[in-house]
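1st attempt posting a full record on here, be nice pls
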Amino acid sequence: MRTLRSFAAMLLTAASVLGAPQASEPAISPAKRDLIRQLYTAMKVDQLAEQSASVILDQVNKQLPPMLSQVLGDSLELKGKPREEFERALIESSDRVNKRIKELLPQRLKWAETMEQIFYPIYDKHFNEQELKDLVAFYTSSTGQKAIHVMPALLKESMEKSAEIMNPRIVQLINQVMDEERQHILKH
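the predicted structure (as tokens):
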């Protein structure tokens, strides 16, 4: 459980450092702010963010227990419990944590407000007014609305396929590095 907490803390720390706000962001012109608001509304950004967060949490919840179990392997003291019991407890704990996070996340993040703080400066930085008009036109079209509608499914399927292909390689890599580190420690 301590390893799970440490891993979660590491992910949150990395996310907060990578997502730290820049010193001073320039003011967005009223015309550009209105275009970004139109785009934000057309893209249903706050709904999409909430759905995407749920998909990501579910995927992490599925992947983390087996990955931890594989990576920890025999180096983990199971306190005399059978490995299957440990793995079951790890999954149950992960499920409880995921459920609680999903329960608290909307209250703590206030999706609409948070997404606006993230979305507006980024779109202001990367798109001029004409490009924003083009994006609004696309996302208000039937194809754009379909793209928004299927985005959570695309994210979910992409993450599942990525996990299927990458997790065995990542576990193998982690095991290799852990073995190298064990050898290093034993030599010194």
